[in-house]
Design a protein that fits this description.
Helices cover 34% and strands 26% of the residues. It is of the alpha+beta class and 124 residues long. It has one domain: Histidine kinase-like ATPase, C-terminal domain (Heat Shock Protein 90). A five-stranded antiparallel sheet has the order 1-2-3-5-4, covered by helices on one side. α1 (15-26) packs antiparallel against α2 and α2 runs antiparallel to α3 (92-100). The protein starts with a strand and ends in a 7-residue tail after the last strand. The model has no long low-confidence stretch (mean pLDDT 86).
Length: 124
């Protein structure tokens, strides 16, 4: 699947499975390991929004020949001013995103976290 999918995820643990299905549908340009990594990352971000966020959880996944981009957003007031992975404090989610993504970040003044994974031939 190419293009963009945006949907509101239900606020329950099963939302992680829905997010993985959407990423998998968009992952045709990725190698098997990259697709697994993208699914780990989206799982972590949706789990964080479910556990620590508030209100709606929105997932956007976009794909084209350059790979897959995904972002997860909730309506919480908390932002990540300096996104620092902190596995020593139990926060493995951003650690995995930092290690597995080709690029990632946090939208300014927002609770939206995004990542990009590209085809191996495109990765530097």
């Amino acid at each position: 699947m190419k293009g963009t999918t945006t949907l509101e995820l239900p606020r329950w643990a099963g939302a992680v499975g829905i997010a993985r299905l959407i990423v998998t549908a968009h992952g045709s340009s990725l190698e098997s390991d990259q697709l697994k990594n993208a699914n780990v990352m989206v799982s972590e971000l949706v789990s964080n929004a479910f556990r620590h966020g508030e209100g709606r959880i929105e997932l956007t996944v976009e794909s084209d020949a350059d790979g897959v981009w995904a972002s997860v957003h909730d309506e919480g007031t908390g932002t990540i001013a300096t996104p620092v992975p902190r596995p020593q404090r139990g926060g493995w989610g951003l650690y995995f995103v930092e290690r597995l993504a080709d690029s990632w970040g946090v939208a300014d003044d927002d609770s939206r976290v995004w990542f990009h994974v590209g085809p191996l031939s495109q990765a530097a």
